[in-house]
Amino acid sequence: MQHEILYKSVEELAGMLEKHRVHWVLDFIQYTSEDILEFHTDRISLYGVMLCTRLATGKTQKAIKNLTATRDTSEIYHILACKLYELFKVCRRLRPKDREIVVENFKTTEIAGM
Predict the structure, then answer these.
(1) How far is the C-alpha of 58 from the C-alpha of 39, rounded, in Å?
(2) Which of 7, 8, 56, 74 has its CA 20 to 30 A from that of 90?
(3) Confidence of residue 74 (pLDDT cuts 50, 70, 90)
(4) What is the distance between the alpha carbons of residues 114 and 32, in angstroms, rounded to a whole number?
(5) What DSSP line would sit under 43-106, residue for residue?
(6) Cα–Cα distance list, 30 to 44, 53, 59, 113 (Å)
(7) Does residue 31 contact residue 91 with C-beta atoms inside 8 Å?
(8) pLDDT, tens only, 86-111
(9) What are the backbone angles phi and psi of residue 5, rounded to the nearest 5°?
(10) Residue 32 is inside which H or E element, if any?
């Protein structure tokens, strides 16, 4: 199942993030949230709309980027995994083709050769 990443736990996502570029994942979260708000509000709940609105502003991403200099990387991965988990919960409601696009876009944040 290609969409299995959308159903991973926070701990599993945190472990996966060691193979991904943090800043690219932050951009992925922001751009995916913007796309969901623009094209898929009819498929998601009010909670999903509120979550995507918060993630699309970029404030969360800016806060996490500021933490990267002062925090342990495992702590950053956990915080980032929590945000991804929330976003992926919303993405589960999308059409199968749109879920595939989300998964493929997330895979592009992976560091090549790892």
Answers:
(1) 19
(2) 74
(3) confident
(4) 24
(5) TS-HHHHHHHHHHHTSHHHHHHHHHTTTS-HHHHHHHHHHHHHHHHHHHTTS-HHHHHHHHHHH
(6) 17, 9, 10, 25
(7) no
(8) 999 999 999 999 999 999 999 999 88
(9) -65, -30
(10) helix 22-39
Instruction: Spell out the residues 6+ positions from residue 53 whose beta carbon is closer than 8 angstroms to its own.
Output: 33, 37
DSSP structure class, residue 24: H
> Structure pTM?
0.87
User: Do 76 and 67 form a contact (C-beta atoms < 8 A)?
Assistant: yes
Q: Residue 110 forms beta bridges with which residues?
A: 20
Specify whether the CB–CB gap between 111 and 25 falls below 8 A: no
